[in-house]
Amino acid sequence: MKHILILHTGGTISMSTDQSTGVVKPSSEHPLNEYSYMFDKEVRLTEEDILQLPSPHMTPEHMLIVKKRIDAAIRSKEIDGVVITHGTDTLEETAYFLDLTVESVIPIVLTGAMRPTNEIGSDGVRNLQSAVWTAMSDNAAEKGVLVVMNEEIHAARYVTKTHTTNVATFRTPTFGPIGIVSKKEVMFFQKLIKTEYFPIEQVTKTVPLLTAYAGMSGAFLEALAQTGIDGVVIEALGAGNLPPATLNGIQLLLDQNIPIVLTSRAFNGIAQDIYDYEGGGKQLKNAGVIFAPGLSGPKARLKLLIILEKSSNHDYISEVFEIT
Ligand code: ASP
User: Fold this and answer.
1) How far is CA 166 from the centre of its chain?
2) Residue 304: what are its φ and ψ, rounded to 5°?
């Protein structure tokens, strides 16, 4: 019999709607605890309320707490898979943080809910069930951390929340989900070529994230250069270009050896050094800007935060951001 550890961290999946006011609030008791009957006797579940946070309150330090609990579970050799319930707003960030920092020899699956547990058509119980089934699947191991929502299985590296309220919110732009949960069957159709592992014990660095826009000046970057940041991620325009007025700020940061990592603010596709004009990707790369092909801005930010714990060497950072 498989032994699955469920770590509850909060989010809508642990909240209910106040029937008189209609607002959504944390429940005093985790509403999913009473649903363990849905797994018959096929699985042993151990549940822990490790955090109780709306996911906009989640920080990398909280993610580290979850990581360390999973590390301990793996070390114990008593757990066959881990499910983490999480608010959907930052679920993809915790998922990717764990993807990079846990040596995932057993299935690690995140799930959440778009609707509180006491609302009609609530998706929490179903998502939890699908996540547990996925964590029980031998095929789910060594595929990196997974996100299971709305009967789809996504790789943590590329999944993102795409809708504010719809239950079909989690999507993987460009690449698609890697599997599905259909009825009770867990099926995989593709997998990442390579997974990555950066063992860290702490998160101490400061890495802000900016989004580029038409007419952007270098003022934010110049101001950031004064604040002692360790790195910065910019969601650039299109294939990876910036307005020319930002270039002074870019140069100022590069002169201080502050790594600048570039993603695209476009929803599909990857950032690349294609254009050779002022602010174009080719010139940015030649100047020392590092491209993060395939990653969203928030995920590139987490990756930079994590790898800076090991090294701030430009060549090392460029190498780990090459597509894997
Ligand atoms: N705002 C909620 C949260 O992320 C949304 C959710 O869980 O779906 O905690």
Assistant:
1) 19
2) -65, -45
CB 12 less than 6 A from any atom of ligand 1 = yes
The model's pLDDT over 192-248, given as tens digits with 9 standing for 90+, comes to 999 999 999 999 999 999 999 999 999 999 999 999 999 999 999 999 999 999 999
**pTM for this one?**
0.96
Instruction: Kindly state the tokens that stand for 281.
Output: 């990707």
Ligand 1 within 6 A of CB of 309: no
Assess whether pLDDT exceeds 70 at residue 28.
no
Question: Going by C-beta distance under 8 Å and a sequence separation of 6 or more, which residues neighbour residue 178?
Answer: 143, 146, 153, 154, 155, 172, 188, 189, 190, 191, 192
Mutational pocket test of ligand 1: of 8, 12, 169, the residue with most ligand atoms within 8 Å of the beta carbon: 12
State whether the beta carbon of 111 lies less than 6 angstroms from ligand 1. no
What are the percentages of helix, strand and coil residues in the chain, rounded to 5? 30, 20, 50
Please indicate whether residue 94 is annotated as part of the active site. Answer: no
The phi and psi torsions of 187 (rounded to 5 degrees) equal -125, 135
**The pLDDT of residue 99 is above 90:** yes
Whole-angstrom distance, CA of residue 199 vs CA of residue 310: 9
